[in-house]
């Protein structure tokens, strides 16, 4: 597995733990279809929470959350529609969050949670 994949997996594991500690129930991880992938699909018992996780080792190329641009958010919305159809969810409120994880060798990992990011 490539180093970036290991880093991404670690970031997703940290993000999932963070969400679970805040009471969210994880429904899917790394859910894929032909249109793309959803990193984490969860629920807070009131709504579906679709989370994009971005992990970096620093901010030299910008904050991790900045990588979720208009094109990326549009793709996530399309894939969410496929997830809803596949799981036969007729209608529910959906919130799109971004979890920015920074993992540095000399510090504890940091998770920033941007609720309703797009």
UniProtKB/TrEMBL annotation:
Stretches of the chain forming a coiled coil according to its record: none
Similarity remark: Belongs to the UPF0102 family.
Cross-referenced PANTHER family: UPF0102 PROTEIN YRAN (PTHR34039)
Top-level taxonomic group: Bacteria
InterPro entries, alphabetized: Restrct_endonuc-II-like, tRNA_endonuc-like_dom_sf, UPF0102_YraN-like
Pfam families: UPF0102
Protein name in UniProt: UPF0102 protein ACFSCY_31605
Organism: Pseudonocardia aurantiaca
């Amino acid at each position: 597995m490539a180093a970036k994949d290991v880093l991404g997996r670690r970031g997703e594991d940290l993000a999932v733990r963070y969400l679970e500690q805040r009471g969210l129930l994880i429904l899917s991880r790394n859910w894929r279809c032909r249109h793309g992938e959803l990193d984490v699909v969860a629920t807070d018992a009131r709504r579906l929470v679709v989370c994009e996780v971005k992990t970096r080792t620093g901010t030299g190329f910008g904050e991790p959350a900045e990588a979720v641009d208009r094109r990326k958010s549009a793709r996530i919305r399309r894939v969410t529609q496929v997830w809803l159809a596949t799981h036969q969810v007729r209608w529910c409120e959906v919130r799109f969050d971004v979890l920015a994880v920074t993992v540095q060798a000399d510090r504890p990992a940091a998770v920033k949670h941007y609720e309703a990011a797009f």
